[in-house]
Amino acid sequence: MIEIKEIKKYYKDKLILKIDNFIFKDKKIYSIMGKNGSGKSTLLSVLAQVIESDKKIIYYKQEDLILCPQEVVFLKGTLFYNLVEPFNLTGLYLDKQKLANFLVDFGLDNLKNSEIKNLSGGEKAKAQFIRTLLYNKEVVLLDEPTASMDKKSSFIVEDAILDLKKKGKIVIIVTHDYEQACRISDYIYEMDNGELVLKKEFLCREN
Q1: Which helix (H) or strand (E) holds 127?
Q2: In contact, 94 and 87? CB cutoff 8 Å
Q3: Three-state secondary-structure class, residue 151
Q4: Topology classification of domain 2-74+137-201
Q5: Please, what is the end-to-end C-alpha distance for the chain in angstroms?
Q6: Tens of pLDDT along 170-191?
Q7: pLDDT for 190
Q8: Distance (Å, rounded) from C-alpha 7 to C-alpha 63?
Q9: Domain extent listing, the chain
Q10: Which CA distances in Å does 59 have to 2, 5, 68, 199, 200?
Q11: 35: which residues sit within 8 A by CB, 6+ positions away?
Q12: DSSP string spanning 50-97?
């Protein structure tokens, strides 16, 4: 569970994020929608401590959280190197069988020895999503995870997100794809003037 008591973030003199008394529940998928610049990605970045907020009272364990940003971030080297080396550097456990399965599922197995710089935008997005899953965190923050992917890959991502929910994870997604949000979310919120406004709740959803 993530319990927010207060978050405030200003850009210059403009209040771009203002959230009071909000709870993200375990085993739920939340989609956050809204116009560009409405504060969606800022919220994820504040939760992940990528950026500092001007005021923040949040109760959760930072080490239980992982952010998959919209902009892909990789080291120089091959696709496989980029999926393995972060775990070597941090000493975290890497499930190599799960990695092998993900590469096959996402159609990247034949590209694992390709230089990351030579991959397409969609292939890089899939690789970054795979890496996010491999960290096996309790809270998963996804910023437009399927924006560069084809439909087939997007559906594979959706299945993986639903699987995270079955495992008891909290998943928070920033997306512009309302149909996707309706397919997988328990709650859809709209970011309006820096605040979360409930757009749709799916009661007794069976995923």
Answers
A1: helix 121-134
A2: yes
A3: helix
A4: Rossmann fold (3.40.50)
A5: 20
A6: 999 999 999 999 999 999 999 9
A7: 96
A8: 19
A9: 2-74+137-201
A10: 6, 8, 21, 25, 25
A11: 191
A12: SS--SEEEEES-GGGEEEE-SS----SSBHHHHHHHHHHHHT----HH
Please give the model's pTM, rounded to 2 decimal places.
0.93
Query: Hey, which residues does 192 pair with through a beta bridge?
Result: 195
**Higher-pLDDT residue of 110, 201:** 110
Neighbours of 15 (CB within 10 A): 14
Percent of the chain clearing pLDDT 70 (strictly above): 98
Widest pairwise Cα distance in the chain:
50
Tell me if residue 9 falls in helix, strand or coil. Answer: strand
CA 124, 125, 126, 131: dihedral to nearest 10 degrees? 90
Q: Which residue has the tokens 């569970």?
A: 1
User: Number of C-alpha atoms within 13 angstroms, CB side, residue 196?
Assistant: 25
